[in-house]
Automatic annotation (TrEMBL):
Source organism: Actinomadura barringtoniae
Name of protein: Sulfur carrier protein ThiS
Pfam family, one: ThiS
Gene3D superfamilies, per the entry: 3.10.20.30
InterPro entries per UniProt: Beta-grasp_dom_sf (IPR012675), Mopterin_synth/thiamin_S_b (IPR016155), Thi_S (IPR010035), ThiS/MoaD-like (IPR003749)
Length: 66
């Protein structure tokens, strides 16, 4: 299936979930947030949130600096 991750098209197998996409995008152990179709998905729900064709997911990582 085709979805959009941070604005870029990606092909994923049917049944892929938010946790798999986050793991593919970043290895950061904390400070990561995910939004699916403009709705924040709680970290505890990532593995249970299955993606569908044309879904849009944004993966955000907090950074420190100044």
């Amino acid at each position: 299936m085709k979805i959009f991750v941070n604005g870029e098209a990606r092909e994923l197998p049917d049944g892929a979930n938010v946790a798999e996409v986050v793991a593919a995008v970043t290895a950061a152990p904390s400070g990561v947030a995910a939004a699916l179709n403009d709705e924040v998905v709680r970290r505890s729900a990532w593995a249970a949130t299955t993606l569908r064709e044309a879904d849009r997911i944004e993966v955000l990582t907090a950074v420190q600096g100044g």
